[in-house]
Amino acid sequence: LEPLLPGDGSDGGEAAGHAGATEPKARAVTPRRLLGLAAGEAGPLALGCICLLVASLAQVGVPKLAGELIDVAIQASGGGSSPEEARRRTSSILLQIAAVVAASSLAGGGRSWLFQHAAERVMCRLRVRLFAALVLQEVGFFDRARTGELTNRLAEDSRVLRAVATTSVASALGSAAVMVLGLVLMFATSPLLTALTLAAIPPLFLTFWLYSRASRPLVRQQLAASARAAAVAEETFSSLRTVRSFAKEGAVQARYEGAQDAALSYALRSAALDACFFPLAGSLATGVVMAVLWYGAQLVIAGQLTAGALSAFVVYALFVATNAGALLGIASSVVQALGAAERVFELLDRQPRLDMQAGTQEPAGAPEGGDVRLQDVWFAYPSRPSIWVLRGLCLHVSPGRHVALVGASGGGKSTVVALVQRFYDPSRGADAPAERRAAAPHPARVPAPTSGAGGARTGGAASNERLEAAARVANAHDFIAALPQGYATEVGERGVRLSGGQKQRIAIARAVITDPRVLLLDEATSALDAESEHLVQEALERAAAGRTVLVIAHRLSTVRRADSVAVVQEGRIAEQGTHAQLLAAGGAYAALVQRQLLANEQPQQGQ
Ligand code: ADP
């Protein structure tokens, strides 16, 4: 169903009503599309290319001048010219070399800055686009994706792509320019020697090809093992309390070590391969240089070549060789980066199955706000499409009413709330009034914006006064004010530096500040101490006043306070009524109470 992420666990089976849920095929990654990433940087990149050309020209100019300098010196020593004249000429050549080197450095610096500048901007834009694409994906997508992998794509893949779209292209252009110029100058100096040099290319290429064929799988496996190790580390640190509670430090250490050991063994094999290849390639290259030198020496002896020309030739040959090597390296990195590019473009192109923008605006003539209605809702989770979780569920909560959802675990209570929040769309049926659905393609999300609410409610930060007022409603102001840093306190990831009751009161304050018409509550199953419980209850009652409330209830006290109780069983509402009515009816609800599935109201102190 979902070809995007490995390990998505899609089981192939598809419940009715999920037609059209198949993923559109990702567009192929073309070089055009890759370069398109750098489209906004055309100016700096063009300028960078000019700098690059100047730098390359200057680079190949130096050996030519150096060769001339050698020839002038040799001529003078052989009595071919006066020493004064030779000194004057060598000084002038040295000045030319200095000028060329200065030009090359300037152009090189300019090239580096311009390309880097473009690269950073491309990467920044890419990451922002990728984040925006991800954050708009529907909740079902995140049920299947691994957080670690998504953050990895955001950081790593975009970095790799940046390199391909800008720096690699630039270096490839530079290398190609130097190579072509070097070859031309080689030919101009001595076609015979050039032919001799080029004869060395096929065996060198063959060894490189063999090497990369052997090395690539090793590198890939090493990266995969490292990623596994990183996943173990991320999972461990993000759930350290669980690890500690179960005394699993030893186990996670062993898992981490296992993954690192695997990475190490691949890295060592890779290192052994490198230790064989590079000396071999080096000897081959040196052999070629020696052969060229020997043959060149014969040409000099025969008077067919000057010594200076020979030394310039050797330097050109080295230029050509190193740049050819660089081009091969770039080619292989581009091939590797194409994998990363495919993954990034897949995410960039992915259309969320739920439109996050739709339904957030109140259509004109909408029914009174705060009306929650589920009509014959059938629902299967996208990650488990063959199992119906809700089977024709109907529920209506009129504005301002408080309804408690009760039922055995796994019956579908949380799923109902998730649908009302529009984390998912129903597979069949509707989870909002038909009128609203007709006016907007999707039901309003909860908390629904109050009519007339300005941008402040959905956008910008709340003012300090509103913040404090909400905290007071939620019984959170006193404890916040007592903290050394007050409202500026850093509470840690997921609020690790707060107590259970404090976290709940902060959550209530957060809900209050958005001033929703509908309040969705999931009652904590674990009891707080009596004092905290009282503070949370009081806060909840204040927050719920005048609002439509749907609460997943686990306590009798909550159920008694609700206007109506709905028993969720096997994806349907089994019965609905007040606590007293349902008790008297002696049905599913009475059985729940009987089996003490609803905790009694008074938290017992000292237990
Ligand atoms: P309750 O809140 O009544 O305990 P839930 O709504 O949480 O019940 O769960 C109903 C069923 O849906 C359970 O069988 C559960 O395993 C399944 N379920 C819940 N969340 C998901 C999910 N994100 N993906 C797949 N199945 C889920």
UniProtKB/TrEMBL annotation:
Pfam families per UniProt: ABC_membrane, ABC_tran
Location of the ABC transporter domain: 372-595
Keyword check for Nucleus: no
Biased composition (Low complexity): 440-451
Database matches in InterPro entries: AAA+_ATPase, ABC1_TM_dom, ABC1_TM_sf, ABC_transporter-like_ATP-bd, ABC_transporter-like_CS, P-loop_NTPase, Type_1_exporter
Membrane-protein topology: Multi-pass membrane protein
Assigned keywords, A-Z: ATP-binding, Membrane, Nucleotide-binding, Transmembrane, Transmembrane helix
TM stretches of this protein: 93-114, 163-186, 192-211, 275-297, 309-335
Location(s) in or outside the cell: Membrane
Cross-referenced SMART domains: AAA
PROSITE patterns per the UniProt record, alphabetical: ABC_TM1F, ABC_TRANSPORTER_1, ABC_TRANSPORTER_2
Residue segments, region Disordered: 428-460
Molecular functions (GO terms): ABC-type oligopeptide transporter activity; ATP binding; ATP hydrolysis activity
Superkingdom classification of source: Eukaryota
GO biological process: oligopeptide export from mitochondrion
Domain annotation ABC transmembrane type-1: ranges: 46-336
GO terms for cellular component: mitochondrial inner membrane
Protein name from the UniProt record: ABC transporter permease
